[in-house]
Amino acid sequence: MEITESQFEKIEHMLPRQRGNVKHDSRTVLNGMLYVVENGCKWRALPERFGPWNAVCRRWRRWAEKGILARVFNELRELGVIGGQGTTVSLDSTVVKVHPDGTGALKKTARNASASRGEGGRRRST
Predict the structure, then answer these.
(1) For 100-118, how does the pLDDT look when each residue is reduced to its tens digit (9 = 90+)?
(2) What is the pLDDT of residues 39-77, one digit of tens each?
């Protein structure tokens, strides 16, 4: 999924004007952002044709903080370039903890032998 020149012209007014010595135009960077969103890859796995991954990631962060990305993605959704509702659902195993009984683990039925001195065990404290 990449934005064509005609599609970019419709959303170009929403993006900040580039200043200074910028090597990659906003269209190329936006296509890099869409690549990461579509493929779910890490920033470091971004192909070279989109520019340095760090530059694309920094611009993503700046545009997201200013609300530019939300407006651009809504406009792209209305134009039919990208699909989806714009909702986010995340499930992580570190967040959802299940008790061992809920996983189908077998219950312990055998009793452990006592290790107290009175029953022939070694003393465990000093």
Answers:
(1) 666 676 766 766 665 555 5
(2) 888 999 999 999 899 999 999 999 999 999 888 888 888
Q: How far is Cα 59 from Cα 63, in angstroms, rounded to an integer?
A: 6
What are the residue boundaries of the structural domains of the chain, listed by start? 5-79
- As given in the structure block, the two tokens for residue 92 are 């992580």
3-state secondary structure 59-113: HHHHHHHHCHHHHHHHHHHHHCCCCCCCCCCCCCCCCCCCCHHHHCCCCCCCCCC
Count of positions (residues) in the chain = 126
Residues with Cβ within 8 Å of 46's Cβ and at least 6 positions away in sequence, in order, are 32, 35, 36, 53, 56
Calpha distance 21→32 (Å, rounded): 19
Q: Report how far residue 2's alpha carbon sits from residue 40's, in angstroms, rounded to the nearest whole number.
A: 15
Enter the pTM of the model.
Answer: 0.60
Q: Which residues of 30-64 are buried (b: 16+ CB within 10 A; e: fewer)?
A: bbbbbbbeeeeeeeeebeeebbebebbbebbeebe
Rounded CA separation 61/75 (Å): 19
